[in-house]
Amino acid sequence: GKLGRYPPWPGKIVNPPKDLKKPRGKKCFFVKFFGTEDHAWIKVEQLKPYHAHKEEMIKINKGKRFQQAVDAVEEFLRKTKGKDQASSHNSSEEKNRRNSSEERGKQSAGEEKRKASLSEGKLKKGTGEGKKRVSSVSSERGSKSPLKRAQDQSPRKRGRPPKDEKDLTIPESSTVKRVMSGTVAGFKWPPSVSEPVKDSDPHFHHFLLSQTEKPAVCYQAITKKLKVCEEETGSTSIQAADSTAVNGSITPTDKKIGFLGLGLMGSGIVSNLLKMGHTVTVWNRTAEKCDLFIQEGARLGRTPAEVVSTCDITFACVSDPKAAKDLVLGPSGVLQGIRPGKCYVDMSTVDADTVTELAQVIVSRGGRFLEAPVSGNQQLSNDGMLVILAAGDKDLYEDCSSCFQAMGKTSFFLGEVGNAAKMMLIVNMVQGSFMATIAEGLTLAQVTGQSQQTLLDILNQGQLASIFLDQKCQNILQGNFKPDFYLKYIQKDLRLAIALGDSVNHPTPMAAAANEVYKRAKALDQSDNDMSAVYRAYIH
Q1: Between the N and C ends of the chain, which has fewer C-beta atoms within 10 Å?
Q2: Residue 235 burial by CB count (10 A; 0-12/13-18/19+): exposed, middle or buried?
């Protein structure tokens, strides 16, 4: 596999699964990393003794996940010390139970559990063959396997994955032992009242629009990448350690990445791109927002044109159609940096006409274009759990694979430019209309003498239960309208969705009604609050 850079991390040498082949070349050991469920083949020269380098590692790594890993090491050492004392009385009996010297050797190696920490450097990813042959182990939780769950939920027909989908050849067992590319930890999502318990690794999915199948089964999973889990914290909120979702299986692309626009969504995306080892150059209309990312290792671009000209793939995430056009066509804009081979990915939620126009001017200069609006909010952006809807240049979509895995949990490729814009507007139309309905219900409960909290409790026990419903109701009940998704942007999306309906003479009365309520909220100075502040439009 490709090589990537990762920080030092504590681990222990363990026996690999029997049918997992050792990589050719330099001598290496199979290492399990503490505080995670990661395993990897690590070269001997990249291993250092834990005790000798413990203090040095702690100075380098200040993160919460690393501290949890160190705590796990110390707990392991305490348990091992106790086991060693107890096992010394039984060593002769253990010898008699072994049938061959080879088995004895394997057992002693397994019990030795040598500690090691990875030195900062390049870690080799498990080979493709290794991935295919990873063996399964029994589950402590007794749940479905991550792959099995994903297949049950996928729009694809259930069953064994197609032969040509190489990344789907993970054994369908209750737990999967994974060969990961590095040592970074990800997380397990603590369950909320309304969220199905995800007791194993969530997957990253790519979905490809098939032009030959019926709409009901028109999405085909083309890769599934594992995210790494941490132990539950016991919290009932949807929070990840260090507010960042880390996909342990990602090997970052060696292409230079540019990013324009560091708003609620862009900031989380850039942070995750950097954490996954991507080389990123950033630009924002207000330059001060770049400072934090410069400290995290990003480079600073002075203009959009400069970013595009110095990077291979440039992403943009701005507020609306006007901002998207100005960014490309304005002075020192994206278009001035485009030349043959340059790639531009617009992640803004805009209308299909706007994105089609931008695609045409980019391609006319020899550039490659992909639209990739994202479904989510600030929290999901920070957690690397966005849903990406892409359309346009298929090869560029594939080139963006490691970037999409860093920022999201799922991506869909929807065909020609304009399709993603339309789909995104429809998704946000449904979400915005639902939010207005929630606010309407809560205020009606209040004015009729019903408990709003009880209404939420009832909804959370019924078929409407969802993370979105629970979080937005909590915002309203607590009077906390700190923006997770700006109200002014959901109103913009409703407006554009209604216009989309107009363009094909399709009625959108629900969206139209919701749009009027959001307009009322904007008149009450709620534009820069969260979309849940639409509640205030109903207060007499």
Answers
A1: C
A2: exposed
